[in-house]
Fold these 3 entries.
Entry 1:
Amino acid sequence: MTTPQNEVRRTVAVSDTQRIPDMKLVTLWTHRSLTTTPVRWRLVVVASSIAQVLAGCVTTPEFSGPCDQDAFGCDDGGELVLDAHCSNDEPLMVEVGQGRDEFEPLEAEMAPEIDYGDQGGRHVFLAARVLNPDPDHGTFELGFRLAYSSPDSGDALFERVLVVRGDRDVRIFEQTGMVLVIDPPYDSTSGLLELRVRDSCGRIADASHAFVVSER
């Protein structure tokens, strides 16, 4: 594109924190043609408009991804360290559920609620409950598996394993707000949510929940 002889091109940078959507540079044109408004006055008007943009008069939507909503920012916590001196051999008892801020049990055949992100993605907030944690060992390895079944599109499996650290000497341990990004088949009819928990004493327990996908 060529610049007309009677026009001046001015490019003004916009800061990243207040940028105009899909534009990092704003290109402005001022005319040199003889009009009743002087060129200098036109530039003052342009500068005033830019100042309003930078001052926040023009706002842009703020998008958040799944990791911004995850309880751990998508940090899976490394590896579980086992305590060889732990002698607790009581069978571990666990439950699997959902919930961002509090543990929500899943009723019979109830599918986990799908959260639709700002940019079109889908995820679920998973939750785990340990009914009899060892009072001196509050660290757990949580392994989630979420499977969707479709007679036409096939099956889809989504997994996440993370290590979480809770408070010691609690009667019941709960962890919520764990994000699992999913992309199930559009024609899914059923599914299975599974949880395997291992504590630092080496105890292992499983929980599962079968569900039916309602028609969309």
Entry 2:
Amino acid sequence: MRPTLLAITCLLLTGCTAFRATDSTVAHRHTRLTVNIPPGWYVESLDPVAVLSRNGPPLQRITISATPLGRPLAGTQRTYNDGMLPNEVADLALGLVEATPGHANFARLRLEFDQLAGADAFAAEATFVDASGLPKRLRLHGATLLGHIIQVAYEAADAVYYEMDLAAFENLLESARITTN
């Protein structure tokens, strides 16, 4: 009974969420990765991933996730492991996106090396059609930081919203940093 009470207490207290937000930033509690919220965007949710949007998540969203190394990934027995190269992390991450129920016509457009908060990272781009039939474009950046795989993704309706909000996503990526407190 005690674990159930603890779980309920954690759900009721904002201190148990994976991320915390201010008016202008979102930060992950364990890795201290902090990013600036783009002007005009709002925080949709903070647990288990941070979700930001301007016009609503079905049209465009930025998600920030932190997966502990060694934790089994949902729907698979695979894990992210210490020592994985950025392209190996990218292959696993993109494979999980492709396997998402409701995604169709998945196509990888590019994969390259990048930096995220000063760490070696990958940058990938892909397209797919979501469960409602809406064509989407995805930009996904990821890196290993302080025992976690951090992924920052921008997903938007390809026809209008992707290009319109891409600069806001790029600015968010440029603001990514590890804070000391």
Entry 3:
Amino acid sequence: MDQPSSPYAAPTSAVADRTERPGRPVLAVLAGVAIDIIGTIIVSMLLGFGYGIFLAINGANTSDMEALLTATDSSLYMTLGMIFGFAVSVLAGYWCARIGKRQIYLLGSIQFVLTSAFFMLITPTEASLLHLLLAFINLASVFLGCYLWQRNNPLTRAAAPASPAP
């Protein structure tokens, strides 16, 4: 006959450590590139539509709208476009790291190179110092996304060695 269990004893259950699925680096890079390219296009279209509506409400004619929407100087439209574009790159870096799970900064770098190559192919302007600066900021945005995943991933934190006590 079984021993009577105490009502004060802790319940028993089969507990196992969570096993981590291996990362998929090719899928991670492709997902990061797709999120960056598609997200940037969607954000720029929404921003362009919104700014165009704003200009139309304020009485701008079509030639003025075209000039303002295609201006490459430091306008509010271009500044907002860069900020939202960098935010999309942070999101793309996060998902690249989340799917890849290993060597996340290498995968983020590959994603950055492929995305930058795509945008350089479709952009008709010549490279300048400003483009180089924006590329480095974009790389930092991708790395920020990788870092955010790494910081918030409990399995990565558990695998990190603990610092010695003073």
